[in-house]
């Protein structure tokens, strides 16, 4: 058999969750491996791209990461935000219980309403490093993940980069799996980071 031709994909991913849960920090960490101590609330929609290569399926993948902020603008741009979206990361802050509750009451509801059916999403509990202020336990995270049928649940620290790359990669692999591109599930457990 000859060499299989390299394939190219583009995936649009939405990063969703309440203000200040760490959406922009997660993206920054994933893209540049940096962490910005100065919090600047994003205005409107921010689109960041990252190109990755997945050896196992010999594919170049361009990720388009859509990040939102200002609530008013979000309501206006919601349709555009979800159009053609392949997947989402739902992020809550482990130190604020309300951000965990809003995953189902707000963010998941919007995703289901406005994105294409059978969208793939993962759940992220961020700020894992703030050990003394944790309000949402890992068990509660797991329970929610099962309840909402998330493809995966990952706890991260955007500040220290813990599990950040793994979270994005898991989402991509789950999307490819669901779209019929065979990616061994072991790959999710063993070959990450
Ligand atoms: P958002 O894009 O969801 O609105 P940001 O959130 O990424 O702007 O982050 C909001 C605040 O949380 C920022 O703090 C940021 O530094 C902090 N933050 C994000 N992720 C983590 C994390 O994993 N651990 C810790 N300790 N802090 C995090 P400030 O204080 O600058 O407002
Ligand atoms: Mg932001």
CATH topology: the name is Rossmann fold
Stretches where pLDDT is under 50 for at least 5 consecutive residues are none
Instruction: State the helical fraction.
Output: 25-40%
Count of structural domains: 1
Query: What can be said about the biggest beta sheet?
Result: 6 strands, mixed
* String of helices and strands: EHEEHEHEHEHH
Mean pLDDT over all positions: 86
Class in CATH? Alpha Beta
Annotation field: number of helices: 6
CATH-derived architecture: 3-Layer(aba) Sandwich
- Report the principal-axis shape: globular
**Small-molecule components bound:** guanosine-3'-monophosphate-5'-diphosphate, magnesium ion
Give the terminus-to-terminus CA distance. Answer: 31 Å
Number of strands: 6
Instruction: Give me the CATH superfamily.
Output: P-loop containing nucleotide triphosphate hydrolases
Structural class: alpha/beta
Instruction: Specify Rg, calculated over alpha carbons.
Output: 16 Å
Which strand-content bin applies to the residues?
15-25%
Spatial order of the strands forming the largest sheet:
2-3-1-4-5-6
How are the secondary structure elements laid out?
Elements: E1 7-16, H1 23-32, E2 45-54, E3 59-68, H2 71-82, E4 87-93, H3 97-114, E5 120-126, H4 138-147, E6 153-155, H5 164-178, H6 185-190
The protein binds guanosine-3'-monophosphate-5'-diphosphate and magnesium ion (MG).
């Amino acid at each position: 058999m000859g060499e299989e031709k390299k394939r190219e994909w583009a995936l649009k991913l939405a990063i969703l969750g309440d203000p200040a849960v760490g959406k922009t920090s997660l993206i920054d960490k994933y893209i540049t491996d940096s962490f910005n101590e100065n919090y600047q609330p994003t205005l409107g929609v921010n689109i960041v791209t990252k190109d990755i290569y997945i050896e196992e399926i010999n594919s170049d993948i361009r990720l388009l990461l859509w990040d939102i902020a200002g609530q008013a603008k979000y309501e206006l741009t919601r349709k555009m935000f979800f159009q053609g979206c392949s997947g989402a990361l739902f992020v809550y802050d482990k130190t604020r219980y309300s951000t965990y509750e809003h995953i189902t009451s707000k963010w998941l509801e919007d995703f289901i309403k406005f994105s294409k059916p059978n969208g793939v999403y993962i759940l992220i509990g961020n700020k894992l490093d703030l050990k003394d202020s944790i309000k949402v336990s890992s068990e509660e995270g797991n329970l929610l993940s099962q309840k909402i049928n998330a493809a995966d649940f990952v706890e991260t620290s955007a500040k220290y980069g813990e599990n950040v790359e793994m979270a994005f990669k898991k989402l991509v692999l789950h999307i490819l799996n669901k779209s019929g591109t065979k990616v061994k599930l072991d790959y999710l457990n063993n070959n990450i980071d």
